[in-house]
Amino acid sequence: MIVERETQYYKPLEVTVTTEDAGKQVRQILHKKLGISRSLLTQVKQTAFGLTVNEQRSYTTAPVQAGDIIRLRMEKESSEDILPEPMELDILFEDDYLLIINKPAGIIVHPTKGRYTGTLANGVVAYWQQKGEQFRFRPIHRLDEETSGVVAIAKTAYIHQQLSEQLQADEVEKVYRAYIYGQPLEHKATIDAPIDRDPDDPHTRTVIATGYRAVTHYEVIQSNKSGTASIVKLRLETGRTHQIRVHMRYIGCPLIGDKLYRLSDYYQVGWEETVQRQALHAEMLSFIHPMSKQRMSWYAPIPVDLLQLEEEW
Description:
With about 325 residues, the chain is of the alpha+beta class. It has three domains: about 15-70, RNA-binding S4 domain (Structural Genomics Hypothetical 15.5 Kd Protein In mrcA-pckA Intergenic Region, Chain A, Roll); about 90-170, Pseudouridine synthase; about 175-310, Pseudouridine synthase. It has helices spanning about 25-35, 40-45, 120-130, 155-170, 245-250, 270-275, 305-310, and strands spanning about 15, 50-55, 55, 70, 90-95, 100-105, 140, 150-155, 175-180, 190, 195-200, 200-205, 215-225, 230-235, 280-290, 295-300. The radius of gyration is 23 Å and the shape is elongated.
C-alpha cells in the first residue's frame, strides 16, 4: 500500500478498468480514458509512485484486468522564478484544477525581461502561497497588458495539456468586446487575413500575404448616432499576436485608445482620455472542463472606463 505525503503529490487521476478494456496495456487505457499525452505520461512514470495499478508501481506496457484501478500521481510544482506579490484578484471561479480571473487593464499576465513584478502571475503565486497551496503558474492563454477580461489558469500539467489541445482544436470559445472608430461596411462578417511581423517595424504585426492564417468573426452590437464609433463583439478562430487590433485596423476601424495601431484619420481626444488604453475586453471564455467533461462559461463584467466611454459618445 502506498502512503502519500500530503505535500508530494496532487490528487491522483484515477481510472477503473472495464470488462471491455480488460487485457489492454495501461498506456492504451490512459490515452483512451484521460487523453494524456505521451510526453506527460513519460514525465509522470519517472516519479517514485507516479503510475500504479492497484497501488503497486506499474509499467505503461503492463496488461490490466477488469476492476483494476490505475492511478496517476503528479508531483506538486511551484513557480520558484516568480516573486510572490500580494494584490487584489477578481476571481470568477476556482476549483482543484482551474483558476479563472478577471484581469484588469494595465497589468501583464506573466513576467518578462525587465518586468519581474506587478504581473498577474506575481499576484496569483502570492494568493496560492497565502492559502498554503502549491501550483505552477500555467495560463491557458494571454491577454495584452491593456486588455481586460477573462484569463484561465491551469493548476496542473495535465489540465494545461487538455486545454491546450482544446485551443488547437478550436473548442475554446473566446468572445471579446471592442470599441472601435467608425462603422464596418458589413454588420456581421468574417475577416480572414494572414498576419505576421511588419517588415518595416518588427515590434508590430500587419496583414501580409506571406503571414500566418488569422480569422476573426465580428458583429456590430451598437453604433453611435454620428456613425463615428461602434461596439463590436468578436470571436477568434485563431490566436495570432494582436489579431483583433490588426484586423480592426485592416478594415479601417481601429480600436479607440490603441496607440500602436491607430489611424491618423481617427482620433477623438475625449474618448482617448477616458479609456487611456486600447478599448478591448475579453468578455467571455468557454471550454469543456477536463475533469467534469461539462462545458463551462465565464463572463467578465464590462469595466467602468468602457461603460463611461459608451456614455460619452
